[in-house]
Specification:
Blueprint lengths: L1 E6 L3 E8 L2 E9 L6 H14 L9 E6 L5 H12 L4 E2 L9 E2 L9 H13 L5 E6 L2 E7 L4 E9 L1 H11 L19 H29 L5 E5 L14 E2 L3 H12 L9
Parallel strand pairs: 1-4, 4-5, 6-9, 7-10, 10-11
Antiparallel strand pairs: 1-2, 2-3, 7-8, 8-9
Helix pairs in contact: 1-2, 3-6
């Protein structure tokens, strides 16, 4: 079995694959990360809770946007899974042609999303919207070119920023408002942040579609922890929460017999 770990700024999203079947998923806060031993104990416990013998994990794979987390995660994989983890980073095989001006700047989670999207829809132009700590947009052509995209603060970050940077605005629950017209401060914040984010998503998707695909209709995939919040807005053709994990699994398979890239 393969243990995949998507390390984000807020959460670690883990998944266990048996061949191509995603057997289990779990999440853990990135902060505090914990020591390698603490991580190893956590992984062992969460696997058992999902009916998986930790000894059945023979391979591990990591993509991370938190460089400081890699050492402890590597050591946990080596000590508790008896596996030298594959790390998705610059220099490994991905099956993509990265057209970013500096390919080393592209987050590994964005590359994993692009890999999985192309595997799901070969021969299609694709836009991926990952709604997490940041909301990222990735443009992938039918020929496997990763062109780039856009990044804006995630909806959760926007709420946190309002609460922390103002004197009187409260911290409110993240929720889809029933109406746009707020009749209290809480309702007004929820309306502004939610509908503002939906509007930003629609506008950016529209511009990317025109600039990258000459107004041809690409497949639009939503992913990330907040993607389901926008399900009723019809901005995505499909929502695939485990997209990064799928891309990481595929990349690990491509590089299984390749010597590891030095970090």
């Amino acid at each position: 079995m393969l243990l995949c770990l998507d390390v984000g700024n807020t959460q670690i999203h883990g998944g266990v694959f048996e061949n191509d079947v995603l057997r289990a998923q779990f999440r853990k806060s990135t902060h505090p990360l914990g020591t390698a031993d603490e991580l190893g104990v956590f992984f062992s416990a969460v696997l058992r809770e999902n009916g998986i013998d930790p000894r059945a994990i023979t391979r591990t794979a990591i993509c991370s946007v938190v460089p400081a987390a890699l050492f402890a995660l590597r050591q946990a994989c080596i000590s508790y899974c008896k596996s030298q983890p594959f790390v998705l980073q610059a220099g490994v095989k991905t099956g993509l042609k990265v057209r970013y001006r500096n390919p080393h700047e592209v987050g590994s989670d964005r590359i994993a999303n692009a890999i999985a999207a192309l595997q799901r829809h070969p021969g299609r132009d694709i836009l991926v919207v990952d709604c997490g700590t940041a909301t990222t947009f990735d443009v992938i052509t039918a020929t496997g070119e990763y062109l780039g995209g856009a990044i804006l603060p995630g909806i959760g970050v926007s709420l946190d920023s309002l609460a922390s940077k103002t004197a009187r605005l409260p911290r409110v629950e993240l929720a889809r408002p029933e109406v746009a017209l707020g009749r209290s401060t809480v309702e007004s914040i929820q309306s502004g942040v939610y509908h503002g984010h939906v509007g930003a998503i629609r506008q950016i998707l529209s511009l990317l579609q025109i600039e990258a695909f000459a107004s041809q209709q690409p497949r639009i995939i939503g992913t990330g922890g907040f993607a389901w919040l926008f399900e009723e807005e019809s901005v995505f053709d499909e929502i695939v929460p485990e997209l990064v994990l799928e891309g990481l699994k595929y990349a690990e398979g491509l590089n299984r017999d390749v010597p590891p890239v030095a970090s």
